[in-house]
Write a structure and sequence with these properties.
Layout (H helix, E strand, L loop, with lengths): L9 H34 L1 H37 L3 H36 L4 H16 L1 H16 L4 H24 L4 H28 L12 H33 L3 H37 L4 H33 L8 H14 L3 H16 L3 H26 L3 H32 L4
Length: 448
């Protein structure tokens, strides 16, 4: 069901819109968590390390899909808020054409380049073959990743966060069952984990595309809109490219950090693999709520309701901070029990690594969530230069400090400490840029 985000109390509107988005990302993360859980429990520690090692590379591909999602979502939101339904449909088809071409290029790069990249990050020999196998299968499923992300971006732009939640809930729970079936019953090893994800993502992608097609056909327009528009493509790229750069540079940074982690051995790799899945569930949840704030901002920008943008940020900040409290308590108090979902009790070194990671990072979720809420506003108003500045500050600090502090302490603890420093400084930048942008919008409409 389409929803106009330009009317109603901003806090109520955002809560009703963002909660299904939060649920969706929890189920989305279940894909990766299920892969690691099944690999660690039913195959072994090396399989868990291989899936975790491969995961950092898959995030590069996801970064491109996410960028296409945001480019399409923000432009479609602005056109939907302005009631320009014909151009909105053209924006959708233009985004699909652009995303399809980009996906084909990445598949070629992935098929040829994943092996050398695994060597570059010093992947240990005992996990190299499984890492390569997992990535080879993953790359063939990239069209599902791209077009599913485009579909969810369109749903969000139309104010519908419930439909993608239903798709993800069904497909991710199915993925867990198929993971176990392929690994336990068919003895397919890491390949079974990868093929299960491929199959379930393919089905959810097909259903999402069919639903979007049916939704768009009901939109009232005059005549037949063009399939492609160069001007709209430029608007999409203006949002997509900075988002792609943001996510891909973060992924490249994480791969560089993974290379430092790999130098400490497979036990540390396994512990990090389990803990970073738990951490990513939280930070990705914040990112998704930030995306919801972007859609809220973009619709209100298109409608000229600038005053609601500031109210939306305040409501979004309260929302993410409400999520921080239970996650902090859960990871600090019950982190060991959560990590044991991925590994056996005799993986002592891996368990210590995972607990240290969660203890150091989780208190700083308040900082990173505030940054991502402010980033949501910056994306929604197309202030991508400021958005990229804050993001790259975080990335550069985390990568540089991971190398410096790990060498200084001669311990992976130095790597974990780099995260909070980068989050805190970049949070200050994002909030500063958000306030400056709101002042600019207020000047355009002083009466609002």
């Amino acid at each position: 069901m389409n929803k106009d985000l330009t009317v109603g109390k901003p806090e109520t509107v955002l809560w009703s819109f963002c909660l299904p988005l939060f649920g969706s990302i929890v189920f989305q993360q279940l894909y990766n968590i299920a892969d690691s859980l099944v690999a660690g429990k039913f195959i072994g520690e090396n399989a868990l390390a291989a899936v975790g090692n491969s995961y950092e590379i898959t995030l590069i591909f996801i970064a491109f899909a996410f960028g296409c999602n945001m480019g399409c979502s923000v432009v479609v939101s602005q056109l939907y808020g302005a009631k320009e339904y014909g151009r909105m449909k053209t924006a959708v088809t233009t985004a699909c054409i652009f995303s399809g071409a980009l996906c084909c290029m990445l598949m070629v790069i992935g098929i040829l380049g994943c092996g050398p990249l695994l060597r570059l990050i010093r992947t240990p020999e005992e996990v190299f073959a499984d890492s390569t196998l997992y990535l080879d299968i993953y790359v063939w499923g990239l069209p599902f990743v791209f077009f599913y992300n485009i579909s969810t971006g369109i749903f969000s732009a139309l104010g519908d966060s419930k439909t993608p939640f239903c798709f993800l809930a069904a497909s991710s729970t199915s993925n867990i069952a198929v993971d176990i079936l392929f690994v336990k019953a068919f003895h397919m090893g890491v390949a079974g984990v990868a093929w299960a994800t491929f199959l379930c993502q393919g089905i959810s992608c097909a259903l999402a595309l069919l639903s979007i097609w049916a939704r768009l056909r009901k939109m009232p327009i005059q005549g037949t809109p063009p399939v492609f528009d160069k001007g709209l493509l430029q608007r999409i790229i203006a949002i997509a490219v900075p988002s792609i750069l943001q996510q891909s540079f973060i992924s490249v940074g994480n791969i560089m950090i993974q290379g430092v982690i790999n130098g400490f051995g497979s036990s540390v790799m396994a512990g990090y693999s389990a803990a970073v899945k738990l951490n990513n569930m939280v930070t990705t949840s914040f990112t998704t709520i930030g995306n919801g704030i972007s859609n809220f901002t973009a619709q209100n920008l298109g409608a000229g309701k600038y005053g609601r943008i500031r109210e939306g940020f305040r409501a979004g900040l309260r929302m993410v901070w409400c999520l921080c409290v239970p996650f902090c308590v859960l990871y600090i108090v019950f982190g060991r029990h959560l990590l044991l979902l991925f590994m056996e009790k005799d993986s002592a070194a891996a368990l210590v690594t995972g607990r240290q990671f969660l203890w150091i990072l989780s208190p700083f979720y308040f900082a990173v969530s505030a940054k991502l809420a402010a980033d949501g506003i910056l994306r929604g108003v197309s202030a991508m230069g400021k958005f990229m500045t804050a993001t790259f500050t975080d990335l550069i600090l985390r990568v540089v400090l991971a190398f410096v502090l790990s060498g200084w302490t001669n311990s992976p603890i130095g790597i974990w400490c780099a995260w909070p420093i980068g989050w805190t400084i970049s949070m200050g930048l994002s909030v500063f840029f958000y306030r400056k942008k709101c002042e600019e919008l207020s000047a355009k409409s002083p009466s609002v």
